[in-house]
Design goal:
Elements: E1 9-23, H1 28-36, E2 44-58, E3 62-66, H2 73-81, E4 88-93, E5 97-100, H3 113-123, H4 128-142, H5 157-170, E6 175-179, H6 187-202, E7 206-210, H7 214-220, E8 223-228, E9 231-237, H8 238-247
Parallel strand pairs: 3-7, 3-8, 5-6, 6-7
Antiparallel strand pairs: 1-2, 1-4, 8-9
Helix pairs in contact: 3-4, 3-5, 4-5
């Protein structure tokens, strides 16, 4: 096979471990005693969210991260996005990584929808000229034309979703991330978003999706990685991954 036809890695996780601090509510007396004893750090305990996770996602793949709540799916996605850094191990990505890992992330509440399109587009790596060229398409996709000059602090979560998704899909990232966001929108808009995600995949963009909607994932994704207690316990065809998850219920 020609080397030119060999897909390149888009996302590489190598023995990635991530810890979080679980903060506990303490009384003022406990805090004073803790401080007087010269102890440093937080009053809490460490939690290992990811434990030496390794996988590679090639360019053009559509991969689902599935698992029960607390399994490490969203943490994995945030590490791919660069929002977080691993405590040990390495995360490598190729090209522009963008998407929806949190409703309204990158939006300023005191700016209008119009202003936030330019702000969010810039955060996602688009130039002002690119945003201006795509602005009408972004607004049309969002279906909230009437509210574009309203401050986004007055938006509902569904309106946030519409605008955030519209900006993200028009920035044409190399790796597109989606984390449970589609559960926020109404059914017609969900269908529109899913159709757009399929288009992106057909165009050869890499997709990494976290969702509990297993039937949707089976329709969109080629491959599934099952997460459990911070580890990747299964990696294979999406139908087999879903069967593995359901067998563990």
């Amino acid at each position: 096979m020609s080397q030119m036809n060999t897909p390149l890695p888009a996302v590489v996780f190598s023995d990635v471990t991530k810890w979080f601090m679980l903060r506990h509510t303490r009384s003022i007396k406990e805090y004073v005693v803790w401080t007087l004893k010269g102890r440093k750090g937080d009053l809490g305990e460490r939690f290992k969210a990811l434990d030496q996770v390794s996988f590679t996602i090639n360019e053009g793949e559509a991969v689902a991260l599935i698992g029960f709540n607390g399994s490490g799916k969203s943490t994995t996605l945030k590490l791919v996005s660069g929002v977080m850094q691993p405590d040990s191990g390495c995360v490598h990505t190729r090209g522009v990584v963008a998407g929806l890992i949190e409703v309204g992330a990158g939006f300023h509440p005191d700016l209008t929808g119009r202003e936030n399109v330019f702000l969010n587009g810039a955060i996602l790596g688009m130039s002002k000229a690119e945003i201006e060229a795509k602005f009408d398409d972004i607004v049309a996709f969002s279906e909230i034309e009437r509210f574009m000059d309203t401050e986004v602090k007055f938006y509902s979560s569904g309106m946030f979703l519409r605008l955030a998704f519209a900006v993200a899909v028009h920035c044409q990232p190399d790796v597109f991330l989606v984390d449970e966001i589609l559960a926020v929108g109404d059914e017609p808009f969900q269908a529109k978003c899913l159709a757009r995600i399929r288009e992106l995949h057909a165009q050869g963009q890499t997709l990494v999706i976290v969702s509990h909607a297993l039937d949707q994932l089976e329709d969109i994704c080629d491959r599934g990685i099952v997460m459990s207690h911070g580890q990747a316990v299964f990696d294979g065809p999406i139908a087999d991954a879903i069967a593995h998850l359901r067998a563990s219920e």
